[in-house]
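Deliverable D4.2, example record:
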Amino acid sequence: MRKTSDMSPRRLSDISPQISQLKALVIDEDLSEELKSSRSVEYINNASIEERILRITGYYESWNASNRGEDQPNSEKVEVKIDGHSASDTVKSDCGNRLQRLCCCMYMTAVHMRRALWGVAVVICICVSWTGCTQLAKITVGRLNVPFTLTWFSTSWNCAIFPLYYLGHLCCCKDRQTPRQRFRECCQFLGDDVLSLRMLLSRVAPFGVLWTLTSYLYLQGLRRIPATDACALFCCSRAFAFLISWIVLRDRFMGVRIVAAILAIGGIVMMTYADGFHSYSVIGISLVVGSASTAAIYKVLFKLVLGSAKLGEAAVYLTVLGGANLVFISAVPLILLLMGAEDFVSPRDLPWPSICGMSALLLVFNFLLNFGVLITLPTLISLGVVLSVPLNAVIDRYMCEIQLNSVRIIAVSIICLGFLLLLLPEDWDQSLPQLRSMLYNREEPQESVRDKHSETLHIRPREAKNCNSKTTPSIH
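Output generated by the structure prediction step:
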């Protein structure tokens, strides 16, 4: 009969009969596999002299219970059965941690999937709106020579951008402001909290002129060349913006963007060659290239003077631009109509469906172009502009307004390739080695863990039965 915990031996002579059993202490063959594979208990033959004495005298349980918290990791606790003393073998399961990780992964996957779906929707809307705007503008200027009037009418629709933005502000923001407070706060981006004539002349008028000139040249070019060619040539504006920024703003030199600019210029030359250098098509191509150049100057000058605008600031700016166009340039279309520079017809004879449809689609395009960054990446927004080129080609081929010869296809492909190269980030050359090193470092630990796991599996039975062995069995 073993002593209880309160009858601890005072002298070594009290347990002298048990000390003689130390040499005869061996591992029982019927010892459970649970003990052999436990991380918290060593083999009995590898135990210290104090531990062996405590096992024989029956005081091992209390000593083991006091030291178990230090020897066991936090994730699992193991109690074993020794000399007939029952103990619970409990391993704290990590199912809770696994479930938490699974829920986290599912949540992140759902977030990324939702953002990807919104991004695809924005890309499709940008592509469709820009394609529809170009096709309707082609139909309108094909019937009537009213490019400046159409530019003035479509630009005036920008007045609706700030009200749309304010509706989103009311729906999304907790700290809601009145329209006047929000407008005055966003007007500080222009240098003043109220609209003044000085602000309009210094900050709005130059960009308004470039905006109007860009739209006017684009519509004039659409009268002479197909919509596919015009849309592809307008994509060169990004290459021109890089060249101007490199010269004026001293942006970082990137060889891949220089290659993209060269591809854009080569595509323009091949586009001109596709129609045989006829004067009519050459003038149209030159007008669209001029439109792309003024658009590039607009972007660089905006960045130089005003910097980068936030969403509310961009909404106020476009609204002010549309209001200034509506107030100060309304007399110019009337003068052109009276002078005969543009076709004068009664308001009843105007193709209002195509005019209003083009203006509405252009408004949607400008809105998504400025506010699409809320739900997707800017690269996807630019990708929607590129995808409008093949969509215009399909529509033009269906309407028999274009001949898709090999030279035109190569020219359009080269321009689109140059545009895609311009979408690469500035540190793309540094990201590739980092990605490669990350993948290499991720594969290397997996291989080492696999090798270590295979080594632990191939334990010889003779070593496992050896009483003097120093290896610790691992839990599989």
